[in-house]
Amino acid sequence: MESEIQRKPRILCLHGFRTSAEILKKLVLRWPASVLDKLDLVFLDGPFPAQGKSEVEGIFDPPYYEWFQDNEDFSEYTNFEECLAYIEDYMIKNGPFDGFLGFSQGAVLSAAFPGMQRDGVALTKVPKIKFLILISGAKFGGAKFGHHKLTVTAFSSPLECPSLHFIGENDFLKPESIVLVESFVDPVVICHPKGHTVPKPDEKNTELMLGFIVKIQKMMPTVEEQSCSNAN
Q: What is the pLDDT of residues 160-182, one digit of tens each?
């Protein structure tokens, strides 16, 4: 019956610094079909063309984008509020979205969203974020990334938003990713042997991913419930 059909979690996917939606899509689509078939993934380009050389030149084709800009020691950010407005506008026009998947700069940004939304400083016009998938993530206010004025209290209390974290053994952001995990109440952590990349999960990690998906699917409205919500 339609009323019992579970809707796929709809996820807005945010790519890394000076890459693109297309690049992240190519990497994520290497995941097993058993995972991908359960998710509705939407990949978005950052609002700003890359303002310098991309680390993936020669590996992936341009164009490349970035979500915002920062200075050398990551203590000041430019176009951060413009970035938030861009993402929220996209969500309003193309949503609803249930959660975020972020890689690198996209993961740093995504990780701050639940706290900023809770504090009423970002994503106030869209539904509450239900979960996060963070790959090579870090947090504002950690050892590497300073705070923007809007993120100051984003991690002031433990985040109850369900989260799935990918941490690479050879990733330069590994220490920051570990610290980020500690900001969440009930994180699921997948460790992999690679570096700063979107890993292709082995059988064990695929099972962890499927377990997380089952958990978040229980939070999703059925097709009938969604239809009633849209009608209202």
A: 999 999 999 999 999 999 999 99
> Which region holds residue 95: left if phi is over 0, alpha if psi is between -120 and 50, else beta?
beta
Locate 1 and state its tokens. 């019956």
Higher pLDDT, 4 or 190: 190
Q: What is the DSSP string of 123-146?
A: -TTSPPP-EEEEES---BTSSSBP
Structure-token pair, residue 13: 């996917």
Q: Where are the beta strands (DSSP E) in 72-156?
A: 77-78, 99-103, 131-135
Structure confidence at residue 8 (pLDDT): 92
Which class for 101: exposed (0-12), middle (13-18), buried (19 or more C-beta within 10 A)? buried
User: pLDDT (tens digit, 9 = 90+) per residue, 19-44?
Assistant: 999 999 999 999 999 999 999 999 99
Q: Give yes or no for a cis peptide into 187 (omega within 30° of 0).
A: no
What does the radius of gyration of the chain's CA atoms come to, in whole angstroms? 17
